[in-house]
Write a sequence for this structure.
């Protein structure tokens, strides 16, 4: 990762010295934010068939793209980096029968098309080492501690790790956040160029602007340049290091994608209990296949004789960690696909919750650790809350929700988020708030 990062800087920076990570020693959080942002913005991938949806159409088979797709997957699909590994997305890209080509979120959730993706806020939150994203509207000082507006609002004051916030163009419209990842200076210390990276349709974007163009960008649409002065204060309890995901080490490594078989959701991925698992036997190198072997927690549960390529579908009601591999005609074993079957669910005392009171959510899980209850006001995009589930909560089988979470809402969307070593699953529901 570090070597790739240095090569990119040398090849792409304008003449002059750069405010870039010092890869010779330990990195500051600002330097890490640049490296982590570029895990997602520098990745290359090529669709193997048609059908992967994007804004206004589809990605083109055989064309290489840089940066992960833009899609506000919410609880319907999965966010790359938070819900799944980057390598899970890359494995799904290589499977022409995967959810990337067979699922379309258009019309199911606003601002979404592709089943796996990122949006601006999940991109910056990933880079800024959060355990779950903050929506763009709540990145700034009016909502968070440890962040301030930069003075002067110009390229000359910009630093890597700074955030550019674009407010909604109209009431209830969408806002946007971008990340400063490079500042280029002349020999006398003047800023000549600033690089901005962001998630926007169709994939992540990387733009090196001259100082004057950067200033013009800031001036347009009432944008503001923010600086986080205390990362821990800004994140609050939302720290990536407290969870299994994001997993920056795995995401920055080069995965070995299975060429014999792949799952409909890629590889290294969790499934809900009872959810169909579709295994595409591809045998891309035409080695010949005798059988498919499925194991749970290391024990064989089924061996299926095969007569050729195609999709094998199974549903598993027993939670555990599974593998699937093929026995080849020469007697050798293929690389195994890895997945988990898990359960994560919740219940509330009743459909209507009284405003001004605390209340409990009952937890249910198997092979999945409940970690966060996320709330979003259906009428106010900035009214979101994370209740982090403690070890004691999990032991008790319930988590108490503070009254402040529903103070301003009439209807709240609730997600219970759980994780294991293969990724995260979400269970969603709605609650009504009554006075």
């Amino acid at each position: 990762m570090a070597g790739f990062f240095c090569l990119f800087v040398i090849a792409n920076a304008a003449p002059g010295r750069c405010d870039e990570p010092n890869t010779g020693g330990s990195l500051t959080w600002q330097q890490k934010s640049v490296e982590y942002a570029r895990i997602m913005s520098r990745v290359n991938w090529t669709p193997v068939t048609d059908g992967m949806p994007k804004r206004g159409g589809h990605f083109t088979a055989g064309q290489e793209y840089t940066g992960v797709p833009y899609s506000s997957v919410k609880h319907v699909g999965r966010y790359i980096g938070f819900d799944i590994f980057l390598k899970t997305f890359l494995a799904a890209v290589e499977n022409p029968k995967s959810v990337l080509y067979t699922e379309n979120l258009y019309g199911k959730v606003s601002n979404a098309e592709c089943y796996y993706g990122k949006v601006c806020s999940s991109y910056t939150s990933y880079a800024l080492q959060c355990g779950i994203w903050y929506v763009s509207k709540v990145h700034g000082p009016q909502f968070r501690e440890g962040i301030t507006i930069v003075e002067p609002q110009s390229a000359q004051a910009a630093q890597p790790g700074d955030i550019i916030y674009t407010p909604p163009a109209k009431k209830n419209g969408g806002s946007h956040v971008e990340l400063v990842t490079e500042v280029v200076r002349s020999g006398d210390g003047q800023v000549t160029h600033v690089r901005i990276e962001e998630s926007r349709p169709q994939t992540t974007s990387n733009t090196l602007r001259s100082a004057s163009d950067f200033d013009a960008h800031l001036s347009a649409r009432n944008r503001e340049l923010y600086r986080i002065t205390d990362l821990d204060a800004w994140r609050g309890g939302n720290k990536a290091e407290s969870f299994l995901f994001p997993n920056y080490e795995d995401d920055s490594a080069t995965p070995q994608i299975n060429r014999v078989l792949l799952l409909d959701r890629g590889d290294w991925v969790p499934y809900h209990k009872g959810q169909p698992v579709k295994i595409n036997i591809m045998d891309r190198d035409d080695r010949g296949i005798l059988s498919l072997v499925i194991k749970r927690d290391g024990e064989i549960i089924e061996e299926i004789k095969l007569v050729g390529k195609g999709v094998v579908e199974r549903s598993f009601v027993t939670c555990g960690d599974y593998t699937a591999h093929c026995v080849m005609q020469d007697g050798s074993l293929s690389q195994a696909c890895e997945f988990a079957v898990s359960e994560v669910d919740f219940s509330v005392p009743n459909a209507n919750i009284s405003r001004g009171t605390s209340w409990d959510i009952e937890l249910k899980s198997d092979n999945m650790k409940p970690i966060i209850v996320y709330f979003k006001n259906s009428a106010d995009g900035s009214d979101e809350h994370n209740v982090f589930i403690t070890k004691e909560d999990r032991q008790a089988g319930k988590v108490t929700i503070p009254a402040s979470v529903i103070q301003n809402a009439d209807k709240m969307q609730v997600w219970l988020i759980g994780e294991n070593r293969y990724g995260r699953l979400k269970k969603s529901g709605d609650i009504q708030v009554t006075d």
